[in-house]
Known about the structure:
The protein is mainly α. 77% of the residues lie in helices and 0% in strands.
Amino acid sequence: MSENPSCRGSFLALTPLLVFLACYLAVSLVAGDFYRMPISVAFIAASAYAVAITRRVPFAERISRFSAGAADPNVLLMIWIFVLAGAFAETARSMGAVDATVDLTLHLLPGRLLPAGLFLASCFVSLSVGTSVGTIVALVPVAAGLSSETGMNEAWLTAIVVGGAFFGDNLSFISDTTIAATRTQECDLRDKFRVNVRIVAPAAVVTLLVYLLTGSGADAVVAPGRVEWVRVLPYLLVLVTAVAGMNVLKVLLLGIAASGVIGLATGSFDLLAWCGGMGQGITGMGELIIVTMMAGGLLELIRFNGGIDYIIGHMTRRISGRRGAEGTIAGLVCLSNLCTANNTIAILTVGPIARKIADRFGVDRRRSASLLDTFSCFTQGLLPYGAQLLMAAGLTGLSPLGIIRYLYYPAIMGAVAVLAILLRYPRRI
């Protein structure tokens, strides 16, 4: 797409993000309630403002640009995932898969180890499947079920799953962020992993210790029921096929089919009730789908008006030394992520510039790839309008901000990554 010639490298292009933050974050904080301000209303205000500040372009073309961003292939792919995830989540719940999985979890782990065990499970699954969204789809319903059975805070358990999901999204060999980072920096996947794991493993250990300590008083007060293994099969099937590398859309379709067959065979519902459940699950994702499309349109106008060019131009002017170069790479991908709400797109946007900065200031490309991936996942993990938090909120009915307040791992990972830059760790690669 061509750029808007009147707004190249413009700070004004970034102000729709400030409008969104003012409408959503500020109002929620002032009201003291994260549920008072609907995220869709905040996006309407920010989108209307973005259209209004797009200069020297006919109104019809502004709307066309906004619509093109809303219909971007990456946005539409995420919407199809949301649709199928909603159908699978409701079908599995109606069939009894969530309750059966919760009973199995309570049998395997005592209450005080549930938070740490859930975090480890999320880390393992995300590392295996390479997608944070897929991990959230599989495990957030289980976290919600555990909350209702044990009385633990639902937002806290959901945040544990989301945090662990970003661990694998950052490190997995089949993660799109890992592939984007290594391709743009022209380094090997294995080498990037060796450097990256030394940065984020300490963050994961610290987070695990936090959950072990905070979960010490969280003993489950209910006795788990008898585990009905046949009802656990849809989740096991989803996990196994995802680990095997099957496309996430195929995985969700297979999960829907398995839940339906088992539900019909066990008498949990009839054919019409199955179809009704799928429809209800899809309808429940309606606001999430609308928000995703509006975010895509808003971010396309920010890009078109020169917001990303402005960020890149100002952050690459005054670089001095290796630490400054690494800090600039980290800042570039963070700000780009804020403007795209997609960590893979953010890496692809600033990756070539990051490679030039790394070569000029002697930063090892394996390290620059690790920094790109780590800081993009850090930013994405704290975005209330990021796909991961929107998905978790859609599956639980919680507010994204209500989940963020308990989201420890991305924050700890970001702090450790900053220390890694300041202390030049690891020194030997």
